[in-house]
Amino acid sequence: MPSLKSVSQETVIKEEFDSVDVSVVREIKPPEETSNNNFLPIAEDILPTKGIFYNGKKLYGRTLKVIELKKLSNVSEKDAVKTVNDIMSKVITGVDWNDIKVADKQALIFWVRCNTFRDPRFTITYKCNLPSGTDDYTGEDIICATDNKMSFSIEDLDYNYIDESKLNKDGSITMVLPFSGDEIIWEYPTNKEVELIEENYKKIKQMAKIEKKDDPDYALVSYSCIIKSINGNKNMNVLQKYNYICNELSSADYMYIENIMEDEYTCGVKPNVKSICKECGGTVEVPVMFSEHFFNPAFTK
Ligand SMILES: [Zn+2]
Prior knowledge:
Number of strands: 14
Largest sheet: 3 strands, antiparallel
Structural class: alpha+beta
Number of helices: 8
Distance between the termini: 72 Å
Bound molecules: zinc ion
Number of domains: 2
């Protein structure tokens, strides 16, 4: 029999699942009206969403202050999301950072980094991971493993831009599942909503612990958070949506969602840039985000 304490704890957690309304884009004073006029306008074409979710409001950004640069350079994995969000919310204005779509986040971080340093180019080193031959004895691939250096700027980034033709008038997306016929409406999440995914995950995990169930699945909690309605029902909380995905959705419909999300709805900066290895001449996909020198460029004379 569950103790009184655990029952009340459970009730409290369930009540906490009431969804937070973040649908209104909060306008921040445009920089002209603030005392700090170091803000520069940000062109829409550097945003993977093309800025279409911000109701015609323009984004502005400024360069990083030394203290902000220090914090970003020393950020640990544990508090990376919070530190980056705290700093970016001061550096970007025009639209509240919370309301900016997470699809634009990395592009804006790049923009800030490129504008902070006099040389907007960015150098990364990588080891070539392409096979350069076959070992005669073992038959296994020999990896080229040559150390390479490449430099690139924001123009070299690859984008997955938003496909406006797939959006409803309010910016949401309707998906009809092929097997059950269920209709799911979801939206690209904002920075705030992504923070809430983390909170909701912790709450569901705590509930699962009380009920002696397995830990929840992070990806499924994420889907539960970006889904706005299921079969027209807009009033389901995250836990109810999570239970729908876990218990009512067929695996075939789930695979459909996973595939279509990746194939048709990916929006953001692509995580890799292409580079030619100086030794083997092959094209290597090099990850660009947040390598250790991202905010710490070495000064070259
Ligand atoms: Zn190579």
